[in-house]
Amino acid sequence: MTIDLDRCALGVELGSTRIKAVLVDHDHAPVAVGGHDWENSFTDRLWTYPLESAWEGLQAAFVELSADLEQQHGVRLDRVGALGVSAMMHGYLAFDADGELLVPFRTWRNTNTGPATEQLSERFGTNIPHRWSVAHLYQALLDHEEHVGRVAFVTTLAGYVHWRLTGEKVIGVGDASGMFPIDAETHGYDERMLAQFDELAGPLGLATPLVELLPRVLGAGEDAGRLTEDGAARLDPGGALGAGAPLCPPEGDAGTGMVATNSVAARTGNVSAGTSIFAMVVLDRALRRPHRELDLVTTPAGDPVAMVHCNNGASELAAWVSLFGEFARAAGVEVSTQTAYEAAFGAALDGEPDGGGLVAFNYLAGEPITDTEEGRPLFVRTPGSSLRLGTFMRTQLYSAFATLRVGMDVLQTDEDVAIDAMFAHGGVFKTAGVAQRFLAAAVRVPVAVGDVAGEGGAWGIAVLAAYLVRRSEGQSLADYLDSVVFADATLSTVDPDEGDVAGFDAFMERWTGALDVQRAAVEHLR
């Protein structure tokens, strides 16, 4: 196979637990990959990552990708045809006029912004989630934090990395919609709400209009700058990568997940399960009223999306599987991580459909959808329950989807939003036919998995980079994905099983009734 680097696109994504780099060829097929693990920390009661770790991770992922490319194809990675940056959405990165970071990166996982979300939601007449950038900025104003008087630029993690690679303070519309509400007509920041924010913020000490602090909004396919020499050196410590590659607008992991699952058309949706879990449903009409369980965001092309975002996803599942693997090793049996997952998830298929009197909460962090300020992972069972591996694991999997179900009920029942198809991606779906089946029961919609997700969000942003340079004149993102990227995609679709649906409904009744137990755990376990 001959690799033409000028026709290749590079995508990098800074996820919650892993930084990935993917190089795709002219057919959008991955030809080399690299990665680096990293973790957030809970410092001064806030979830954060050091930005130095972001660059160390990006360089490590790039070096691994370069080595993979050379080993597989004998090609030195000294240039690319296009490049894109993705990262976890939302959060707060604030810089002064000299480009210096004012406070440590505050991630999407923080829930300390309650007063800000309440005031802004009431004033704007739309839901402003805890993790949005504007909520973090306004909360800092309410808390009279010293740094707010020196803020000159606020952006997301993807926007920050893109800025350092290109010198351009821009952001993709999908990621922008996690900073501030987007006008459905203009695909820019909502001007009415910008003015309302300035009215609120002025008396609190923010003299600069908010629009001057935010990155410029761009849609998919728009030119977002070129890789500078300094930017190339930041990516490639070896110095081989040349400058000049065009970059697509930086996007959040929600937007790249939509691309990676071909879920950008109306009445389609996707579920991404990782450290967090969220559903994105592309709307064909406006919602009747605001709901605190639903975020209004956009696709990378600017089309309206209802998002159900849960702060807690598969981390607690991973902890239990790790524990079972540790037990196996203590018993003298060596098992790989993949084998441990297959055994634990496979057992769940034989578990009692309603969870058999077991209840689990996967809350490592606070969960705004259920008014839980902090996380306390919890497992409780009734005295008459049967503690079997299959039922226990089914309960843990149900728990991973329970909060998502709360938001989906609002979307599907209260708003009567029709969904034709849901696509699922994330490591939890790698064990075939288990998490996919239970998710179908939870959302009561057919769920598809398959090769559409490629290498996840890093692949999704690589596809957006390719769209920047390869699309036909006037070709929409949805058409490009359908006719070019996913024309030959293979999917495996599971319809909701009636027994699973009834079982999940019964589990949800028990789970909802135990929410006060979860809140009590937060209050009493310090």
Relevant terms:
single chain, 20 strands, Nucleotidyltransferase, domain 5, alpha/beta, 526 residues
Number of helices: 16
Task: Examine the secondary-structure arrangement and name the CATH architecture of the domain at 315-450 and 491-524.
Answer: 2-Layer Sandwich
Number of distinct beta strands: 20
Annotated CATH topology of the domain at 315-450 and 491-524: Nucleotidyltransferase, domain 5
CATH superfamily of the domain at 315-450 and 491-524, by name, is ATPase, nucleotide binding domain
In short:
It contains 16 helices and 20 strands. With 526 residues, it is of the alpha/beta class.
Describe the structure.
GO terms for molecular function: kinase activity. It comes from Microlunatus flavus. Belongs to the FGGY kinase family. Residues 270-467 form the Carbohydrate kinase FGGY C-terminal domain. Keywords: Carbohydrate metabolism, Kinase, Transferase, Xylose metabolism. This protein is α/β, with parallel strands linked by helices and 526 residues long. Among the domains are: 91-155 and 180-213, Nucleotidyltransferase, domain 5, CATH 3.30.420; 315-450 and 491-524, Nucleotidyltransferase, domain 5 (2-Layer Sandwich), CATH 3.30.420.40. The protein has 16 helices and 20 strands. The strands form six sheets. The protein has a seven-stranded mixed beta sheet, with helices on both faces. Strand 2 (18-24) and strand 3 form a beta hairpin. Helix 12 crosses helix 15. The longest helix has 26 residues, at 389-414. The protein is globular, with a radius of gyration of 22 Å.
